[in-house]
Amino acid sequence: xxxAAIDIPTAFTRRGETDRPxxxxxxxxxxxxxxxxxxxxxxxxxxxRSAVAPRTPWDENHVLQMARWISGDHNVTPMTGAxxxxxxxxxxxxxxxxxxxxxxxxALAIVLGNVIAVATIIPLALTAKRxxxxxxxxxxxxxxxxxxxxxxxxxxxxxxxxxxxxxxxxHYNNFYEFGTDKDDPARHAERxxxxxxxxxxxxxxxxxxxxxxxxxxxxxxxxxxxxxLRCVEGWSMVIPxxxxxxxxxxxxxxxxxxxxxxxxxxxxxxxxxxGVRYPILDWPYVEGLRLDEAMHPLTLLVFGVYGKxxxxxxxxxxxxxxxxxxxxxxxxxxxxxxxxxxxxVTSWMASAPHEYGFYANVNPxxxxxxxxxxxxRRIGEDGLFSPRRKTLMFNGYAEQVASLYQGxxxxxxx
Length: 414
What we know:
By secondary structure, this protein is α+β, with helices and mostly antiparallel strands. 31% of the residues lie in helices and 15% in strands. The radius of gyration is 27 Å and the shape is globular.
């Protein structure tokens, strides 16, 4: 080996420290750890800024209601099961001493939670130090851990498709109770009263019951599912819904042996819904499913979208998402669910029976009487040269649901 080769410093070394790689220098890890801490704080701050206050002080956060009770305000009954970490209620109880404004309490709770989350980097660093790394290396590892998202998607229901933008999902809607133009729901739906809200579940049920919206929010764990939505009009979206399988609710009321179908009725608020002044449909809006369709794991009772409570124009405070059917089958703003023995006549069947059948499964081989269903326009892909997409059988969910219709003529049972 030549003298020149011996004198060349090792890669990533500083002058005077030719035997120490830069990555092992204490200053390097201190800078990395501080940089990650800043990024972590920024991410948490952005999450706090984008958070939406619950529509009541406790409709999505058991911890806060338990904290209110602990603070000394016994006018409220604490919910059972105060979140995953009931100890948080003791930490957040003092917030109720400062204010009883719902939005302020929620915002302060998020700020406090984020401060604690960022501060958690220090004990994580000390723990990592016991494993043989330096404090600053541990701080960098802890910071990365605290940057991870707090919410995960159920991998069984994730899609490779790019989700439609939140703006398009919430501003391009069919909700004829508020008008027939796509932007009418976003412009008028804020009038709809969504609290208080109850849902009557009746009919062929062993335990019929009226559920308050808070009862429904506690009935089963919420999860995010990214579903395709295909409108019968020939456009589509990809939407991250938040909810749980409708079967959880139906099992709670114990369908009898006579129950073969389920109907869903949308709220009717004439003073808040300008669209119902016109006889577009026979109001209130009614949809239906076969019981086995309603009990299918894909059929979702939805309470949120994009990690936030459902906006009114998307069917607040709860709606269905039945991804293998055309969008009008996913009833919005539900106030009544009825288990019945006979196949119901739904709103669109009554209005135009030659165009809309009971099943309304997405089927590229069965055209609408006035247009083809072979292709679709994905909302957000509206460029001049954007090609239409080929529509998939059952909207891409054939593997999961085709067995429900084995032996049926889908051209007749449209």
